[in-house]
Amino acid sequence: MTPLSTQARDAALAGLDGWAFDEARNALYRRLRFPSCTEAVGFMAGIAVAADAADHHPEWSNVHDRVDIWLTTHDADGVSERDVALAGTINAVLAGRS
Ligand code: HBI
């Protein structure tokens, strides 16, 4: 799998609310906060189902009400369309919560 060019990645990011490029991890990055730890972990459980279905998985960490997410494609050694798609899924799930 091939990574997106810098130009294509920036164009994708322009359409992805809340996401940035993390140079150090060569990944799309977003930090989220939830009303509680339970809701943060519940969100992660929902995304895990979608990630398994797509066979594409986030790198993430949870501390209390905070979830940090990095999306990168190991097979491409960088950000690919699969990361853009998963970021879009995550944003859609978040939009559905409010
Ligand atoms: N998740 N983020 C990410 N990147 C991958 O390259 C990846 C994955 N999940 C599953 C997966 N690749 C598999 O297709 C391979 O590990 C076999």
From TrEMBL:
Checking Gene3D superfamilies in the record gives: Transcriptional coactivator/pterin dehydratase (3.30.1360.20)
- Indicate the transmembrane segments per the record: none
Enzyme Commission number(s) from the entry: 4.2.1.96
- Judged by the first EC level, this protein's enzyme class is lyase
What UniProt keywords apply to this chain's record, in alphabetical order?
A: Lyase
The family database entries (SUPFAM superfamilies) matched by this protein are listed as: PCD-like (SSF55248)
Cross-referenced InterPro entries? PCD_sf, Pterin_deHydtase
Q: Which reaction does it catalyse?
A: (4aS,6R)-4a-hydroxy-L-erythro-5,6,7,8-tetrahydrobiopterin = (6R)-L-erythro-6,7-dihydrobiopterin + H2O
Provide the family line.
Belongs to the pterin-4-alpha-carbinolamine dehydratase family.
- Report the protein name in the record: Putative pterin-4-alpha-carbinolamine dehydratase
